[in-house]
From TrEMBL, chains A, B:
Its main location: membrane. It catalyses: K(+)(in) = K(+)(out). One of its GO terms (molecular function) is metal ion binding. Homodimer; disulfide-linked. One of its GO terms (biological process) is stabilization of membrane potential. This is Potassium channel subfamily K member. Residues 275-314 are annotated as: Disordered. Keywords: Disulfide bond, Endosome, Glycoprotein, Ion channel, Ion transport, Lysosome, Membrane, Metal-binding, Potassium, Potassium channel, Potassium transport, Transmembrane, Transmembrane helix, Transport.
């Protein structure tokens, strides 16, 4: 079996296993948290009725009541009637939670209520966070050629740019496309779907999400009576995964550019790692002279650049 | 000036500039958000008085009131009297917010209320997140020798272990020390300081924080009347920075071990990057034979390992 074929099978296996891991996580979170949520929901409704039935409302009774309401709200349980229909721990929401956990976004609009849920969150993230990094790295590794090396090599051949200018020019174009495709366009879509979000709110959401900060003040699909809620949540998950992949790709392209421009040497930081032969395969298909050019552009003065490709065979 | 000396001056400069960046961010966030918070706080108090003064409380009026209370609570403004004294946007809290933003932890227990605050958050994180990564990488780069290469080399010399066993043994010890020093001990401290936190809650907080998930269901120093609140918040920030550094160090040590055991080659992922000559300096001080040993242990069968150190001079 050729190395390229094996590599794609491996990647597909990774992604399928990753999806299975998310589904399993969703199932467990839903099973653990749903009964606790139902209990807390009915408790809070009883509390509300008791509060409404009392003869006089004074400051102390109101504050006691509000304290419990705010406590329940912290766990994502609202006392308002229009939001009591949807659960935070149905399958789609649990899947969304599992996804925000392993990607380290962690909005925190819903958090585990039970000790079992908290312990499982630790265990799940302990495996899930490195696994997500592995899947993202594997995907980016395979995208580096068509998105970075290929276009840079083309810039040099067609426009006749020198390696440094070609890399900088390519990075500027890549950044522009990413800002448009992963920030501006999604922000337009979100601000249309979510009634209460302005365009700034939506851009702020996209940015806070794709940096994995995940403040959680804006979370899609949380308004009461959201149409196609499950489908919407899953689409946001896909956006999140693709967005994180592209952010990582931009970061690697930037790292490579910083290497070429001597910034990493100046700051004495680790260099962007050489890629395996796998990445070079499409260049070989395009013609052997491209490969030498790409290698030359990658490390113009590096005597080790040829030999280091062999290290994958050790 | 020697390269080692220059390197330490550079690192000190980085850290000082980083602290200045955090202080500046805190100042701006506090200036922008404080007036908005005060306005919302007084609005919610007026609302509470109006609610208490009405003759009869029915379900509709209660729900309208609760909707506004929950909305304010989303922005970290509580209607409860004991929590109204402390601000979410005093200098220490703003500094803490700025820190959780640039480290991508993002608890979201306080979020910007104004459009100016949201726009500034984007701008601040846009520069701050890569800057934090740069500072962490620079610190880890300088810690890799005393924490990783040095002890591995010592294991090989003193106990006579082979490179693979020495690396695995060192990683196991490192992991144990990190779990004790950055999870168990801090969890004991947090569960003592925070009255409502169990030991599991505290471990869960440490884990969710150092993975940068930051759900925000547990945030230290948020209880009303917290003693030495500012000092406590700053201590948590130091814990966060050191913790992230050590997590990154563990990740690099793991990456290196995975390289040696052929895992990165198997999954066709980028190899752990070679370190600059800077890292090797303490080895040179210890004796030149150690250096060769360390290099041999790093890449036992890699013909490029010697030449690749020269790449920092290009």
């Amino acid at each position: 079996m050729s190395s390229g074929y094996k590599s794609w099978i491996l990647l597909t296996g990774f992604i399928l296993f990753y999806v299975a891991y998310l589904l399993l996580g969703a199932l467990v979170f839903s099973t653990i948290e749903r009964p606790v949520e139902d209990k807390l929901k009915s408790d809070i409704q009883v509390l509300k009725e008791e509060f409404l039935n009392q003869s006089c409302v004074n400051a102390t009774s109101l504050e006691n009541f509000l304290e419990k309401v705010l406590q329940a709200n912290k766990y994502g349980i609202s006392i308002l009637p229009n939001s009591s229909a949807s659960s935070n721990w149905d399958f789609a929401s649990s899947l969304f939670f599992a996804n925000t956990l392993v990607t380290t976004v962690g909005y925190g609009h819903t958090t585990p209520l039970s000790d079992t849920g908290k312990a499982f969150s630790i265990f799940y993230a302990l495996l899930g966070v490195p696994f997500t990094m592995l899947v993202l790295t594997a995907c980016v590794q395979r995208l580096m050629h068509p998105v970075t090396y290929g276009p840079i090599s083309m810039c040099r051949q067609r426009i006749g740019l020198d390696p440094l200018t070609a890399t900088a020019f390519h990075f500027a174009i890549l950044l522009l496309l990413v800002v448009l495709g992963f920030f501006v366009v999604p922000a337009v879509v979100f601000s249309h779907i979510e009634d209460t979000w302005s365009f700034l709110d939506a851009i702020y959401f996209c940015f806070i999400t794709l940096c994995t900060i995940g403040l959680g003040d804006y979370v899609p699909g949380e308004k009461p009576g959201q149409k196609f809620r499950s489908l919407y949540k899953i689409s946001v998950m896909v956006y999140l995964f693709l967005g994180l992949m592209i952010m990582y790709l931009v970061l690697r392209a930037f790292h490579r550019m910083a290497d070429l421009h001597g910034l990493t040497s100046f700051f004495q930081l680790p260099h962007c790692d050489e890629d395996t032969e796998e990445d070079k395969e499409p260049i070989i298909e395009a013609g052997p002279e491209d490969q030498h050019e790409a290698e030359a552009s990658a490390k113009p003065l590096d005597p080790a650049s040829q030999t280091s490709y062999n290290t994958i065979n050790r």
